[in-house]
Write a structure and sequence with these properties.
The complex is a heterodimer of chains A (about 110) and B (about 110). Chain A contains no helices and 11 strands. Chain A is mainly β and about 110 residues long. In chain A, the strands form 2 sheets. In chain A, strands 2, 4, 5, 9, 10 and 11 form a 6-stranded mixed beta sheet that branches. In chain A, strand 4 and strand 5 form a beta hairpin. Chain B has no helices and 11 strands. The radius of gyration of chain B is 13 Å and the shape is globular. The N and C termini of chain B lie far apart (about 35 Å). Classes of the chains: A mainly beta (about 110), B mainly beta (about 110). Chains A and B meet through strand 5 and strand 10 of A and strand 5 and strand 10 of B.
């Protein structure tokens, strides 16, 4: 079945450093979504990417969808303590949304 | 506009007991989902529904049953709880099945002893 893996599982950065999480699918995706879950909270939708090679930005966050539509990345520039949480990608293939394993980000002031 | 709500927030069960988790949404969404979240395993789909009166199995359906008698409600049942069902359960809803964002409830933390 479809599998979506994320790396790294965990990253601890100092405030102001950059952060990147990578998402890889075993199958070609029709689109990919990204969610953020704050500690003790629930996942909240961030963005959806649909086109091959698509790049979208939200302030300090940059999202990219691979040319082959099998991978994606989320890059945060100059992290802040408010960026703390777990970031999930969710890939859509065969009419199903499959969540990745998540990357937990810890930011120290 | 409450979005997606879940009851209860916390529950402790003994092995073999049964319980029902209730999810309600006020966004008139057709699609609703139940996930479980375990450390290091992300969110895994248990069951989902594409409309009132319909349900379908997800990735990890064993040991759970669901019902969608009303469009706004989606119930998750555990007939005979097992320690392996200790988890955080999230309900979500969306306009469409896969190309629309999902709105999540606050979660239910279930412990089975």
């Amino acid at each position: 079945g479809q599998q979506v893996m994320q790396i790294p599982q965990y990253q601890h950065v100092q405030e102001g450093e950059d952060f990147t999480t990578y998402c890889n699918s075993s199958t070609t995706l029709s689109n990919i979504q990204w969610y953020k879950q704050r500690p003790g909270g629930h996942p909240v939708f961030l963005i959806q990417l649909v086109k091959s090679g698509e790049v979208k930005k939200q302030k300090r966050l940059t999202f990219q969808f691979g040319e082959a539509k099998k991978n994606s990345s989320l890059h945060i520039t100059a992290t802040q303590t408010t960026d703390v949480g777990t970031y999930f990608c969710a890939g859509v293939g065969f009419q199903k949304l499959v969540f990745g394993t998540g990357t937990r980000l810890l930011v120290s002031p | 506009n409450a979005g997606v709500t879940q009851t209860p927030k916390f529950r402790v069960l003994k092995t073999g007991q049964s319980m029902t988790l209730l999810c309600a949404q006020d966004m008139n969404h057709e699609y609703m989902y139940w996930y479980r979240q375990d450390p290091g395993m992300g969110l895994r789909l248990i069951h989902y529904s594409v409309g009132e009166g319909t349900t379908a199995k997800g990735e990890v359906p064993d040991g759970y049953n669901v019902s969608r008698l009303k469009k706004q409600n989606f119930l998750l049942g555990l007939e005979s709880a097992a320690p392996s069902q200790t988890s955080v359960y999230f309900c979500a809803s969306s306009y469409g099945l896969s190309s629309y964002e999902q709105y999540f409830g606050p979660g239910t933390r279930l412990t089975v002893t």
